[in-house]
Design a protein that fits this description.
CATH superfamily: NADP-dependent oxidoreductase domain
Number of domains: 1
CATH class: Alpha Beta
Number of helices: 13
Shape: globular
CATH topology: TIM Barrel
Helix content: 25-40%
């Protein structure tokens, strides 16, 4: 198990080797404004090799934000991240304090390295042992009981080969728990925050947050809506002013623009966008699906700007230049995609005025 976590000194050392404009400070950490995601791919050894190599190449090209989840590729994504990090550290290419690793727990997952039918595995591994009880799993294949999250955290640490995870997300909890009342959900969420604060004290995680799909970008009247300021008050109740709820993740791209355009988060009596709310509340935002899993790459879909020829790079440039966004998380495995996407680290993001001018042009 590799000790340590991302530090101010370590991340600053890392960023000093690359273009300084491509790093942002959050929680006193210098984080790359593009991160690598590990969501897609088959749960097989061939994909393992591709993912490991993509992570190594991304880190050596200046990316120090690595995002995964225990259910991605049925635990194999976390293991690929762990192997890639361990190999770079053993070669002396990086140190643990230079990289920021996030993962997610909540969804019920099997283990692709155990050749067993999904529900047989869940029954044997969790139900028989008492980790999961009757009715703990929602119809959305989600479980946010403390025994389950404790079990999953320990598995994530083992999969990653790390003593401490920089950021632990509760994964799609609002969206994954459709069967309970809002009142019960909030009670459960409070318990999860209290658990995460205990794990911070034990040194197993540094920060926590919520990786979401809808709840922070929908209008107030949507059943999945969640107030960010209310959520932070829950974190304060669990951990005081120095609580660990410091990051969220949500979809954002040229199509999913709600985080920028929808004003549904109340701040000081005024409804603002989620990104504005996060800036006001000191919450870092990582974004998912920057390329809409390739759908935004069709010819003519992404408007041309900034003398950037590749549509994928224009997508990343738009997202990482958006005020309030720390980094888009781009999933990449094949050598050609990795090489292409990493070109973004050779140019600076747009400044705020350039971004505003582009948005005005795009919306007419």
């Amino acid at each position: 198990m590799i000790p340590g976590f991302a530090t101010s000194i370590g991340t600053k050392q890392f960023s000093s080797k690359f273009m300084p404009e491509n790093y942002r400070i959050s929680q006193d950490l210098m984080l790359s404004n593009v991160g690598i995601g590990t969501y897609l791919g088959n749960p097989d050894s061939q994909t393992d090799i591709q993912v490991e190599e993509a992570i190594r190449k991304s880190i050596l090209s200046g990316i120090n934000v690595i995002d995964t989840a225990i259910n991605y590729r049925a635990q194999k994504a976390e293991r690929s991240v762990g192997k890639a990090i361990a190999s770079l550290i053993s070669q002396g290419k990086i140190t643990r304090d230079q990289i920021f690793v996030s993962t997610k727990n909540g969804y019920v997952t099997n283990d692709a390295d155990v050749k067993e039918e999904f529900w047989a595995y869940i029954q044997r591994e969790y139900a028989t042992s008492g980790v999961i009880k009757a009715n703990d799993i929602s119809s959305g294949y989600h479980c946010m009981t403390i025994p389950y999250l404790q079990d999953q955290l320990n598995r994530s640490l083992k999969n990653l080969g790390l003593e401490c995870i920089d950021l632990m997300y509760l994964h799609n909890s609002v969206e994954g728990q459709p069967d309970i009342s809002r009142e019960q959900f909030l009670k459960n969420l409070q318990k999860v925050f209290e658990f995460y604060e205990e794990m911070r004290k034990e040194g197993k995680i540094r920060f926590y947050g919520m990786a979401t799909w809808e709840c922070f970008r929908v209008p107030k009247d949507n059943q999945h809506y969640l107030s960010l300021s209310d959520t932070i008050e829950m974190a304060k109740k669990a951990g005081g002013e120095n609580h660990g709820f410091r990051f969220i993740q949500l979809p954002y791209n040229l199509y999913y623009d709600q985080a920028l355009m929808t004003k549904s988060q109340p701040i000081q009596g005024k409804d603002v966008s989620t990104l504005e709310a996060c800036m006001a509340l000191g919450i870092g935002v990582f974004t998912s699906v920057p390329l809409m899993q390739g759908r935004l790459l069709a010819p003519g879909t992404v408007p041309e700007f900034g003398n950037i020829s590749q549509p994928s790079l224009r997508c990343l440039q738009f997202i990482r230049s958006t005020p309030g966004v720390l980094a888009p998380l781009v999933g990449q495995k094949s050598q050609s995609h990795v090489d292409q996407n990493l070109q973004i680290m050779k140019i600076p993001p747009m400044n705020e005025q350039e971004f505003v001018d582009l948005v005005k042009k795009m919306v007419g």
